[in-house]
Write a structure and sequence with these properties.
By secondary structure, the protein is an alpha+beta fold. It contains eight helices and 15 strands.
């Protein structure tokens, strides 16, 4: 690995209000090397996470705020029409509330890491409030955890193209730049043994196939005796997703786990508003959701939609003959 010089002038002193015991700012140091990459040295994991969140906010606070608002289902309220589908999906799936419950169920170590990362981001927002857009929010660990779901929120409620083709739905969504909607996302990795390289050292290459707009971000996090990892992640995520330490390299590739089932249910011909499951009638439940949408003139309009649900889950498609 090429060594990078770390100028002492790039030492960052973090200013934060002092909580009980030693404040997080006193337990972490961030150094930027000559490439601008942050090297975070924390006395413990929570302090290291604080430094990671602060350093990421130094580079991308606005985009972090944008992504956390989307995870809350508040994108349309701040950015207009483009956020409507995201916000409705967040409401339908209860993502925000589920994330709050999930935080309480996490192991103590990761819960502290999330808390530290969020505190670091918030500390940056406090220190630079006057320089940031007014909509940039403070975050909580549930916002960060909800954001880890990313695009899966909308995708979960989007009918697969194969289903639409089966039931001859029209019009079908147009193919995107990377193939038809719903096509499997790709990635690849190559591991080369030292016996196959000119240096005699093993090489691990990861190629995740994501667009530049996803915003990769590079960092080095160290907790003496416990953690020493250099790698990359996507802006807003609280951990490094791929990289290496002094013993190994790590990267992951996409797979296609079977995590959901789509069932076709017939309407009960004898009872309007009911469907049949195992020969028994069940009521179709309707739920109404409203999102606020920011307008160019500064006003806000409300968009309300009604969605159907069964006891098995949300209705994602209705056919012409009544099957779902």
């Amino acid at each position: 690995m090429r060594r990078r010089l770390v100028p002492a002038a790039l030492l960052v002193a973090l200013a934060a209000p002092a909580p009980a015991e030693r404040p997080l700012r006193d337990r972490v140091v961030i150094r930027r090397d000559t490439f601008g990459v942050p090297h975070v040295l924390g006395e413990d994991e929570e302090a290291a996470a604080f430094g990671l969140g602060f350093a990421m906010a130094e580079d991308h606070a606005t985009e972090m705020g944008r992504r956390y608002l989307a995870a809350r289902g508040e994108s349309a309220r701040n950015f207009g029409e483009e956020g409507i589908e995201n916000d409705l999906a967040v409401l339908r799936l209860g993502t925000r509330w589920r994330a709050r419950g999930a935080v309480a169920e996490l192991g103590r170590g990761f819960r502290q890491w999330l808390a530290g990362f969020t505190a670091g981001y918030n500390r940056y927002v406090v220190a630079h409030r006057a320089d940031l857009p007014a909509w940039v929010p403070f975050a909580n660990p549930a916002d960060v955890l909800a954001h880890t779901l990313g695009d899966a929120v909308e995708a979960t409620l989007r009918p697969p193209r194969a289903l639409l083709e089966k039931y001859k739905a029209a019009p079908l969504p147009p193919p995107g730049p990377d193939g038809p909607p719903g096509a499997e996302a790709g990635s690849n990795a190559l591991a080369l043994a030292g016996s196959r390289t000119t240096t005699g050292h093993a090489i691990l290459l990861g190629n995740p196939h994501l667009r530049w707009s996803q915003l990769y971000w590079e960092a080095h996090v160290t907790v003496p005796g416990r953690l020493d990892f250099y790698g990359s992640t996507l802006v807003g995520l609280p951990m490094l997703r791929a990289g290496f330490n002094d013993r190994l390299g790590y990267v992951q590739t996409n797979n296609a786990p079977d995590l959901e089932d789509i069932l076709a249910l017939s309407l009960d011909p004898a009872r309007p508003g009911y469907y049949l499951f195992d020969g028994r009638p069940f009521p179709i439940r309707s739920r109404r959701f409203t999102v606020d949408v920011d307008q160019e003139d500064g006003s806000v309009r409300s968009v309300t939609r009604e969605f159907e649900e069964t006891h098995l889950g949300p209705v994602v498609h209705r056919t012409a003959d009544g099957e779902r």
